[in-house]
Amino acid sequence: MPTITINGKKIEAPENTTILDAARENGIFIPTLCHNDGLIPYGGCRLCVVEVTQGGKTTVETSCTYPAEEGLVVKTDTERIRRARRVIIGLLMDRSPKPIVIQDLASEYGIMDRPTRFSIENEHCIRCGLCVRACREIVQARAISFAGMGFERKVTTPFNESSSDCIGCGTCELICPTRVIDMRDLPDAQEHNPGDHESIGPVRTLDNWNTEFKVKVCKECGNPFYPAQPLEKFRQAQNLQPEFFNACPSCRIPPHVDDELCLGCGGCVVNCPIGAILMKEKEVEQRSNIYPEICTGCHYCVDKCVVGAIKLEE
Amino acid sequence: MKIKDVKEIEVMAKDGLKKLKPDAVRFTVGSAVCGLSKGAKETRDVLTAEIAKAGLNAGVVAVGCNGLCYAEPVVEVIAPGMPKITYGPVTVEKVPELVKAVKAGQVLKGIALFKAGQEQLLSGASVQYGGSADLIDSAAFTPLKGQVRIVMRNAGLIDPLSIEEYVATGGFSALAKALAEKNPSKVIKEVEASGLRGRGGAGFHTGLKWKTAKETAAPRKYVVVNCSEGDPEVGMHRALIESDPLSVIEGMMICAFAIGASEGYIYISDTLAAAEEKVRVLIGKLSEAGLLGEKIMGTDFSFTITLKRSTGAYISGEETALLNALEGEMTEPRPRPPFPARKGLFGMPTVVNNVETLMNIPAIFLKGGTWYAGYGVEGSSGTKVLAITGDCERTMTVEVPLGTKIKNVISMAGGVKGKKALKGFQIGGPGGGILPAKKTSLPLDYQKLWKEKTMLASGLVLMDEDTDMVNMARFFIRFFEEESCGKCVPCREGSHRVGEVLDQIMQGTGTKGDLDYLLSLEDPINDTSACALGKLLLAPVSSTIKNFPEDYAKKIGG
Q1: What is the average pLDDT value for chain B, to the nearest integer?
Q2: Which residues from chain B sit within 8 angstroms of residue A67, using beta carbons?
Q3: What domains can you pick out in chain A, each with its CATH number?
Q4: Chain A contact present for B311, CB below 8 A
Q5: Which of A255, B65, B270, B546 could be joined to B239 by an S-S link, Cβ 3.0–4.6 Å?
Q6: Which ipTM score applies to this complex?
């Protein structure tokens, strides 16, 4: 394990980690905006810069991307670093003064009341790229990306059109640090045609990406619970039964096996899409046993049991 | 012919030499983009027609740019019993007179520039031209005086599309030597001994880069040629690759042999369409000649080249952004480390070298690293090609040994246009800042220029006494603003805001505080930007504030 020094403290960093990870493991705080533990380090916001001394040379590097190599001497909070961060936060403030994450950073670095040189543009998106990377790396949909160069860069769908790759999962909305992505779940949307309008039921809208998704209705309780497209994508990815996502999470109650009726044929064991059923010895014979901690309540076994031994209620 | 053995390259060289000094008259017309834009195509057409009309036994060859861009279209005449005579500019109207003079065995005064008695080739051989002419010799011709041509050894001499002519000058003999010796470490040792630094601006030692790539174990390795030139108003690499694309390809193959790569990419800017076409044709011709593909020259070495077109953006010349673009990702820089020599294209060790760097390689390996290190000064060895442009008397491309004083280079170009005084100059590209006229005593030396917060890039831009330096700074900041990829905050937001402040100053609403604000941004932005584009963002502004405070004072009013 490489040993590095951060702010005078010797630290054993695990293999193949970054300075940022090593620092955080040891309770040393480095501010970040574009970093997320679930994503590949990007180095876009440059807020996590630290002074790195290696081989007698001191440079300023982004700690989120710099590997923690043997013998590094790192300083995370020198005047040079604070000054650099002040400039970055100031540049972000010039464009996006309102988001809470930016205001928090500005007040921490004491630049809340600095004179404004430019007309406030008041944009919310800070171009950190978290949504773009989450869509690509986690969801693997690549529905959104950066477009344009330099100051004109923005996050959008291809040609600003409604993206057919977007599955409406809402990961972008969840990960956005400035809450700029406008996702709404509407209970009863209407489609407006000339001179007429028609109810199309519950939908999810993502105005930023010009997309709209029909929301699936629970087979059991009749309540809308999640857009159909991501459910279908996940179902296919996991090779699950078509009925798998028919019920909402609260209706996914493990069914009950009637030991009197069960033949012990094992059909449900084979049919269960996630292997929540195993045979178990009951007295002298084998009987099906559903493990409630694994069962998702898809009730596929209920429909498939040849003798009707699996029931929803006791 | 197909080369099946390393020794056959000498046979091909003999055929090529006959073309370089033919029994008939050889007219060469500079037909790189600089020549074509001045009518080289028309000159060539009329020349061919006139030769037929006059019944002269002569051939017309389209060659590259010999560096004398101001005199384009340049025509060189090699006639039996005469020295080689260079004419320029040869416009369409002058062609009939020229053909008449050549037929009569005379020199056409007026447009004749200089003569050359012989041509020293890389192979060690020389082409001797006979006879004499009442003209200044090429060595005494001011724009050429003091030049040492290693990179530009074939520029304007050979037909860029002819493998035979290239081989005749000593081309591919460096590769043949390397393949015959079968010792990749020796190649790297020679490059290290030469002290060659990457000619892109960062000046990283080429030998060290190659060594790193060689020593990194990986299933595949790559060589990438960075031919994505984006400096505003400078077309140095375009002239180089258009005039002698085979040198680049040979340099690339020697590198591939040294590091153990079998695949190469040429990443060429969209603005270099003519060069791209030439490279495309040559890749086909080389494969036919057994100099590319499987078992090159009958040895175990195999190499393929893929030509990729860039969008022409400035950022695509940044080596990690270039690799992203090659992989089909967004053209934005990657975090470093890992450096491309360890983990580059598709995660494999990759050497990214620019055109000029690679063109040096065949010469270095053929003549030895110590021979190359004999040119230049301590820490900066060899020669440097510079495109001189801006307010200069003669727009041209020169190749001078490193250590040459900048003022000497300027005098090659005839000084400032219209006998005006020099106010400032720029040598490091847009990120190199603008230096005042008194700094022309600086030598072309990596370390000394870094000390002045500039560097050695591809062009030398002169600015005369009438130049408004605030306007100049605004021009370069606007360039950065347009070319910033937008990945990192300091460059994306900074370039725009600096531009806004400069606009305010130019409109007369700026204050002294604005200048302090601009200067206060320099170090933090340099520290935090992801790549050199952002790091050097403030250079045009801070250098002009420091060197030309009077220009700012005029706008701010005290």
Answers
A1: 93
A2: 337-338
A3: 1-122 (3.10.20.740), 130-217 (3.30.70), 252-311 (3.30.70.20)
A4: no
A5: B65
A6: 0.89
